Amino acid sequence: MPGAPNRVSFAKLREPLEVPGLLDVQIDSFEWLIGAPRWREAAAARGDVTPVGGLEEVLYELSPIEDFSGSMSLSFSDPRFDEVKAPVDECKDKDMTYAAPLFVTAEFINNNTGEIKSQTVFMGDFPMMTEKGTFIINGTERVVVSQLVRSPGVYFDESIDKSTEKLLHSVKVIPSRGAWLEFDVDKRDTVGVRIDRKRRQPVTVLLKALGWTNEQITERFGFSEIMMSTLEKDNTAGTDEALLDIYRKLRPGEPPTKESAQTLLENLFFKEKRYDLARVGRYKVNKKLGLHAGEPITSSTLTEEDVVATIEYLVRLHEGQATMTVPGGTEVPVETDDIDHFGNRRLRTVGELIQNQIRVGMSRMERVVRERMTTQDVEAITPQTLINIRPVVAAIKEFFGTSQLSQFMDQNNPLSGLTHKRRLSALGPGGLSRERAGLEVRDVHPSHYGRMCPIETPEGPNIGLIGSLSVYARVNPFGFIETPYRKVVDGVVSDEIHYLTADEEDRHVVAQANSPIDSKGRFEESRVLVRRKAGEVEYVPSSEVDYMDVSPRQMVSVATAMIPFLEHDDANRALMGANMQRQAVPLVRSEAPLVGTGMELRAAIDAGDVVVAEKAGVIEEVSADYITVMADDGTRHTYRMRKFERSNHGTCANQSPIVDAGERVEAGQVIADGPCTENGEMALGKNLLVAVMPWEGHNYEDAIILSNRLVEEDVLTSIHIEEHEIDARDTKLGAEEITRDIPNVSDEVLADLDERGIVRIGAEVRDGDILVGKVTPKGETELTPEERLLRAIFGEKAREVRDTSLKVPHGESGKVIGIRVFSREDDDELPAGVNELVRVYVAQKRKISDGDKLAGRHGNKGVIGKILPQEDMPFLPDGTPVDIILNTHGVPRRMNIGQILETHLGWVAKSGWNIDGSPDWAANLPEQLRHAQPNQIVSTPVFDGAKEEELAGMLSCTLPNRDGEVMVDGDGKAVLFDGRSGEPFPYPVTVGYMYIMKLHHLVDDKIHARSTGPYSMITQQPLGGKAQFGGQRFGEMECWAMQAYGAAYTLQELLTIKSDDTVGRVKVYEAIVKGENIPEPGIPESFKVLLKELQSLCLNVEVLSSDGAAIELREGEDEDLERAAANLGINLSRNESASVEDLA
User: Which residues are in the RNA polymerase Rpb2 domain (predicted)?
Assistant: First the structure.
C-alpha cells in the first residue's frame, strides 16, 4: 500500500492473497440488485453470458400480468435509474432519503386486437447505497445486515423412536416459497408423506396421484421391503382415487372432484407462481440427489423425478445403504444432513432482502392492475392508468424503516461501522427467534472455519445467533460463503487460489497456513497436520494434501484480527476484546498502537472514514477544510474534510489532512485522517506506560488507577456532540412561535439568544439554559374587563402564551458549535403542520474521570477507581512515573496472557532495540527486525506473530535511555519506586506499554441524582430513570429490609412525604424553608388509588382510625397546600403521564 506507515512485522509467512475488499459483501450484492455495469462485467468474467439483475428478475417473474379472461396483458422490462436527487451530505442535513428515481418500461397488449401500448413508468424513489455500503433513510445512516438462513433444498434427518428405540429417518423438501413436502419412515416400517404440514398418508398415494401404477412402483422400489409393505397397506386403486384422497386431506369439508384435485396438486408443487425452490434450492436438490449434473439451472419448481429420487434416497438411507445410483448413472453418497453446516445455511445479503420486499410490493400491485383491467374502458387503458406504485413504495419504505435487519448504523468508531456492515444475523423475518434457538445452532461448527469468526459474537441472549464474516470470506452467487485456499499438487504448494464452499471443502484434505514449506513450495515435514470432514484433525503424508490455508488469520473477523497475541488469549476474553474495540470512543488526539497486527491500515481505509487519493499526483493546496490534488493526467480534484460532525452515537467525526503542499501522493494513499485513525491506521486508544501490581487495594476487583497527567494533558479526552431539536407547529389555538420574547424570564437568561430567539454559536450552556425560545398559545379563558381592554388596545399581542422553549436537558452542558434552521418561508421540506424547525448542536469535552470504563484489546476491562497525582504514582529508576496501574489478579484465571506479552513488546518498541550477533532465538526474524530506533511501531499478526523466546531475547536487547540505563530486565520487570515515600517496592514489577481504549460507558452519562422532579399522574409517585429525571425506587424488598431492622419512622417517611403524600411533601418543604419541625405524614396517594380500584369492583371500603372512627379522605388539595405551594413557587401541576411500569 503506497504511503503506508513504517510498521515492521514479525510475520514469518508470505501471504499469496491480499485481503479482499471488506465491504464487498454489501456493495456487490446491491450492484447485483440494480444491475450495475461493474457487476455485469464481473458476471461476464465468470462466464455468465446473460446476467440478470435482482430487479430484472422480479419484473420477469411478474410479467405478464393478465386479466381474468386472458384478453389483456401488461409486461415490465428494462429497469433503470436517474441521477440521485441530492448528495449524501445534503440528505443527512435535511432529513432526506438518499434515493434515485426508478423507471421501467411497461407494455400493455390487447390480445383481441393485437394493439401494443408502451410507456416509461416511474416506480418511485429507490434508496441507493452510498460508497461506504450504507443507506441514508430520512437523514439517518442505516445498515442492512446480511441474514443467515437455512437454504432451500432437500434435508434428510434421523431420530430414535422413544418407545421402540428404532432408528427412524425423515426428509423435508423446503422451498423458498410454497408448501413443504415431508416424507418419513415410521416405527411400523411404512413410508409416509405429509403435504403442506397436513395429515400423514402412505407415500404410494402421492406416487399414484402423479400417475404411477402399482407395477411401476414395484419396478422402481422392488428392492425395498418397507415400500412394498406401504403399497400393500395403501387402499387407493388408481390415480383418480389417490388424487381425491389427497384433496380430502388438504381441503377437508370441500366436495372433491378429479379436476380440482389435479389442479390443486399441480399448483402446490409444479407451478412457478405458487412454488419456488429458487435457483439455490434447485442447485441443492440436484447436488444432493445427483440429478441433471452439469446442466444449467432453468426451472425452479419441483419435478416428478425429484419426488421419486427423494423417496428412493430416503428408503436406501433407512436400509443402511452407502450409495445410490440415479437413472443418469451418477452415484451419490447416501447420508443424513447437518442443518447447522454452512453447506446448508446461506446468506440473504442486502440485495436479496430488498428484492424480496419489492416482490411483496409488486404482488400487491398485481392485484390492483388486474382489478383495473376489468373496470376501465379498454380503449382508454394505458400502462400508466393501470399501475399504482403505492404498494411498491410502501413495501420498500417499510423494509428500511421497520425491518429487524435494517439497523441504525453503529458509528461509535470506524471499526464498529465496518463490523456492522460485515455482520451475519440468524434472527429476523424468516430466520430464528432468540427463544426458540437451541444450543446446536449457536455453537461453533467446523464449517465456520474461514467463513464466520468463531470468536466475535455478542455475550447476551444473542450469543451464537449473530456473527461476523471472516477476513477472507466472500459470498458466491447462490449465497453460500466461500473461503480461499492455495492448491497443493503432489506435495507442492502453488499460488493458485481456489474459493471453496463448506460442502466442497468437506471433500478435500486441507493443511494449515503455518505448515513449514521450503523455497520451492514443498512441505518440509513428511507428515503434515491437516483437517478433514467434520473437523477431524490428523497427520497425513504430504502427497495426500489437496489445499492449504492462504493465511493464519483466515478464520477470524476484522475486529478479532486486530488483537495482537490472540493465540495466547482465552477465547472468552478474546470475544470481549473484539467486542470492546467497537465501543472505543474517538479521542481528541488519536494514536496508532505501538503493537499492532498489520490489519490496522486496511481496516481504516475500508471503513471509509479516512480520505484516500483517487489518482496519483501532487498536492497543490492544503487547509483544514479541503485538500486539492493536481493529478498526473492534468485533472484537479478537491477533497472536502468532515469537520466536527456528530455521528449516530454522539461521538465526534473530524477529518484532518496528513499531507503537505508540494508532496507527491500515489493512488490509494491516505491523505487525511478521520476519527480514530493516525497516519491512515486504525487508532482506537492510547499507548500508556503500565505497571502490573496491586496498589493499596485501590485497584481491587479490576479497578484501575490512573495518573493525573492523563487528565491534565487531555490524553484520554473525547468530544461528544449532542443534537437538540425543536419545531414550531400549528396548534388548534394558533401557531407556535420561535421568539426571544418569552414571558416571565429575566434578561440574564436571554443573554445568549439572538434576535430570533436562537442561542448564538460559541455560547457555553449548562442544564436548564434556553437554547431556542418558543411560545405556545394558551387555552382561552373568560376575559376580565381589564384584559378585554388590553386586547382591544394591543390586539392579538396581549394573548396568553406559555413558555415551551428548548432547554438543555438535566445533566448536560457544553459549547454550541452549530445551528440549523429550516422554515417553510425558505422552501425547506418540513412535515405537515410544522412551520419552522431548529437544530442546535452542543459539543462537550469530556476528560477522563473516576467511574469511566477503560479496556485493553484482550478483554481486560475495568473502571477507574482512583486518579492519583503524578507525583504519587510509582516511578521508574530514571524518574518516569507510570500512567496506569493494573492489578495482577486480572490475568491468571482469565487466561489472557496476551496483555502481558503486549506490554513487553510495547516496551521493546518504545525503547528501540539492537540484536548483536546471531543468537538462536533470532534465527527466524526478518532482517528489518534486527535493530530499530525508539518509538518503532511493530505488528505481530494473529497466529503468526512474535514468539515467546523472541520476545524474551528482544527484552534483553533494548536500547538504554539517555542516561545509559536499561530499566527493564530481560524478564520484562523493573524496580519501581513508591511515589509517596521514594522507597523501592519490595519486588520487581512488570512494566511496559499497553494499548488502552476509553469505552463509551462514561460516568457522565450514567451518574444521576434528584431532589424534586416530575411525578406520575395517577400514583403521584416520582418517575424512574435518568431520562425521566426520576428518583431511586424503594421497592418491596427494600421495605422488608427496613422492617427487619425496625426502622418504622424511616420507612414511613420513605413511603409518604418522600414519595406520594402530596400534601405532606409540600408541607415538609415549607417546614424546611421556615426552619420548623417536620409535620406528621399524611395518606399516600397510591392508597387512595387502591381504594378507588376496590370501589370500581363494587366494594365499599371505609378507612378507620385506631379508635374506630371513620377517616374522611379529601379528594382535592386543601387550601393550605395551595397557599403554601404558591408562596414557595412550587408548580403542583408538574405531572407526567404514568407508564405501566410505574403502576406495577
Answer: 150-348, 407-475, 1030-1104
Could you tell me which residues are beta bridge partners of residue 452? 469
Return the C-alpha cell found at 910: 518504545
Domain span at residue 81? 24-149+348-402
**Rounded to the nearest 5°, which phi and psi values hold at 854?**
-120, 155
Cα dihedral 32/38/44/47 (nearest 10): -60
Give pLDDT tens digits for 541-557.
Answer: 999 999 999 999 999 99
* Cα gap 143→423, rounded to integer Å: 10
Does 333 sit behind a cis peptide bond, omega within 30 degrees of 0 on the bond before it? no
b/e code 928-966 from CB counts within 10 Å (16+ = b): ebeebeeebbbbbbbbbbbeeebbebbbbbbeeeeeeeb
What's the mean pLDDT in 215-221?
85
What is the number of structural domains in the chain? 5
Question: If you average pLDDT over residues 122-128, what whole number do you get?
Answer: 94
**At 499, is the pLDDT very low, low, confident or very high (cuts 50, 70, 90)?**
very high
Residues 321-339: tens digit of each pLDDT: 888 888 777 788 889 999 9
Residue 1116 reports pLDDT greater than 60: no
d(CA 653, CA 655): 7
Q: Considering 402, 418, 434, which residue would you say is the last residue of a domain?
A: 402
Does 1065 fall in a domain? yes
Residues 171 and 244 placed together within one structural domain of the fold: yes
Assign 3-state DSSP to the chain and report helix, strand, coil percentages, each to 5.
30, 25, 45
Q: What distance in Å separates the CA atoms of residue 432 and residue 438, rounded to the nearest whole number?
A: 10
Cβ atoms 950, 922 nearer than 8 A: yes
Query: In angstroms, rounded to a whole number, what is the distance separating the alpha carbons of residues 494 and 511?
Result: 13
For residues 375 and 505, state if they share a domain.
no
Do both 37 and 142 map to the same domain? yes
Q: What is the DSSP track for 1-66?
A: -TT----EE---SPPSSPPPPTTHHHHHHHHHHHT-HHHHHHHHHHT-SS---HHHHHHHHHPPEE
Which helix (H) or strand (E) covers residue 215, if one does? Answer: helix 214-221
Same domain, 76 and 88: yes
- Confidence at residue 1133, expressed as pLDDT on a 0 to 100 scale: 53
Please give the Cα distance from 331 to 290 (Å, whole number).
7
Beta bridge partners of 125: 101
Q: What are phi and psi of 304, to 5 degrees?
A: -60, -40
What confidence score (pLDDT) does residue 588 get?
Answer: 96
**Would 456 be classed as within a structural domain?**
no
Are the C-beta atoms of residues 703 and 738 closer than 8 Å to each other? Answer: no
In the chain, the amino acid numbered 881 is: P
Long-range contacts at 1032-1040 (CB < 8 A, ≥ 24 apart): 1034/1059
- pLDDT-based confidence at residue 1125 (cuts at 50, 70, 90): low
The CATH number covering residue 729 comes to: 2.40.50.150
Specify whether 306 is located in the same domain as 368. no
Residues 856-906: tens digit of each pLDDT: 999 999 999 999 999 999 999 999 999 999 999 989 999 999 999 999 999
Same domain for 136 and 71: yes
Instruction: Tell whether 741 and 818 lie within a shared domain.
Output: yes
Could you tell me if residue 653 is inside a domain? no
Polymer length of the chain: 1144
Q: Is 1134 exposed, middle or buried (0-12, 13-18, 19+ CB in 10 A)?
A: exposed
CATH number of the domain enclosing 1104 = 3.90.1800.10
The CATH number assigned to the domain holding 252 equals 3.90.1110.10
Instruction: For residue range 661-684, list pLDDT tens digits in order.
Output: 999 999 999 999 999 999 999 999
Range with the largest mean pLDDT of 749-753, 1031-1035, 1038-1042: 1038-1042
Are 1031 and 1121 part of one and the same domain?
Answer: yes
Query: Tell me, what CATH number does 127's domain have?
Result: 3.90.1100.10
Most confident of 531-535, 991-995, 1083-1087, 1137-1141: 991-995
Domain containing residue 507: CATH number: 2.30.150.10
